[in-house]
Design a protein that fits this description.
The structure holds 2 protein chains of 2 kinds. By secondary structure, chain A is an all-alpha fold. Chain A contains 2 helices and no strands. The N and C termini of chain A lie far apart (48 Å). Chain B is mainly α. The chains are: A mainly alpha, B mainly alpha.
């Protein structure tokens, strides 16, 4: 593969991944007050966000 | 960065695939949680998002981890004998991904949702059976992949050995932190924050994996991380022992205070804190000596021998020539470092 095209593809994938992470954070925060099924916790990729958000916005969610 | 600068090495592309698929898994979970359980039911595509969470984590985590163990750092298997293992991982991963995607019934993480692509009849039963088989095979295949990396590390020399050390360090940090978090969660009476701290450390280790791989592949003059590994071992052990001393001290002293005065006292916390402050340096020195003796025997012996030799030399020069100042300079061969006594 052409090095420039490869580089562009790699950075595009990185941007796409970052976009998905941002979407997950938005919906993860929105879903914090949700009553999830037994054994499930609000799904967020970072425990820091999970801890700070769940303790400050929805203590009953955990 | 690896993918853009080393296009021929699949490791960079594997990490790109991991990033995209992990991001997609996280987004799908968040989206489905919000729509199904937090009143966002006006949004479309919930079933698709929930379905993705049923099989995509296997692609995002299990498959790349096994492939990384098999192909790191040059993107090729250890030898031609390991090629069948790579194919075995590919087959297990392919079946393990397809089986939960088409298995009939409710989704594991979203039990209120039926698998939209669940196949009925004999094909569905085959999918369920394939899922059970791959669940059984997943751990042996993972361990064989890990064995490949360990074998590579044992035989590697020079630059490849340093590259492997970097990734092994991140992997070991991740594994031990998650294991410690799991164990801390099981221990009754331990504050929840302890398990969370270990979990956070595991997350840091996991995110450090691509960073370590990137440094290992892209840096030309690779730094030997033996010092970092050594310090991690020392301070992790020291932290664990001091935490145990602190918690044990508080509990025991509170029991004693209750027996003597009938009530608990803040003095227990003060005494325990002072005890761990006093213990810090002596304990650190002992642990450092133990780790050096146990894991860095060759360097430890060499350092001790040099120390003894330099003591003898300095003593001889002092007694025979009686100079006002003596210093011994040891010039390590092939390096510009120096030691002075």
């Amino acid at each position: 593969m052409n090095p420039r095209a490869a580089s562009r593809l790699a950075w595009s994938l990185w941007g796409l991944a970052l976009g998905f992470v941002l979407i997950s954070l938005v919906f993860g925060v929105l879903a914090l007050p949700a009553q999830l099924p037994e054994g499930r916790e609000p799904y967020l990729i970072s425990i820091v966000v999970l801890e700070s958000c769940s303790s400050s916005t929805a203590p009953s969610a955990r | 960065m690896i993918a853009s600068q080393r296009q021929g090495n699949p490791i960079g592309w594997i990490f790109c695939a991991v990033a995209v698929s992990l991001g997609l898994v996280a987004a799908a979970y968040g989206y489905a949680d919000y729509v199904l359980y937090a009143g966002g039911d006006f949004l479309p595509g919930t079933v698709l998002a929930a379905w993705l969470t049923n099989w995509l984590p296997i692609v995002a985590v299990y498959v790349p981890t096994c492939i990384l163990f098999l192909l790191f750092p040059d993107g090729h298997p250890l030898s031609t004998r390991w090629r069948p293992v790579v194919w075995a991982v590919a087959v297990v991963a392919f079946v393990a991904t397809l089986a939960p995607a088409f298995e009939p019934g409710r989704l594991v993480s979203f039990p209120t949702v039926e698998n939209p692509l669940g196949l009925g009849g004999p094909i569905g039963r085959v999918a369920s059976f394939a899922k059970d088989v791959t669940n059984f095979l997943a751990i042996p295949v993972f361990l064989i992949s890990l064995a490949s990396m360990v074998t590579r590390l044992r035989h590697a020399r020079g630059r490849e050995r340093l590259q492997l050390k970097w990734v092994t360090y991140a992997a070991a940090l991740t594994a031990t932190s998650f294991a410690a978090s799991f164990l801390a969660g099981l221990l009754a009476g331990l504050p929840e924050v302890v398990a969370d701290v270990f979990f956070l450390l595991g997350v840091v280790g996991f995110t450090g994996l691509p960073v370590a791989a990137g440094v290992a592949i892209l840096r030309h003059r690779l730094y030997d991380i033996d010092v970092i590994v050594n310090r991690t071992l020392v301070y992790a052990t020291l932290t664990a022992i001091l935490a145990a001393v602190y918690v044990g001290g508080v509990v025991v002293l509170q029991v004693i205070f209750r027996a003597l005065t009938g009530q608990e006292s803040q003095l227990a916390i003060v005494v325990s804190t002072l005890a761990i402050a006093a213990l810090f340096n002596p304990l650190r020195r002992r642990i450092q000596a133990f780790i050096d003796r146990r894991f860095y025997r060759r360097k430890y012996d060499a350092a001790k021998t040099l120390e003894a030799l330099s003591d003898v030399l300095v003593a001889v020069v002092r007694s025979t020539m009686q100079p006002t100042h003596v210093s011994l300079w040891l010039r390590p061969s092939g390096r510009s470092g120096e030691e002075e006594r």
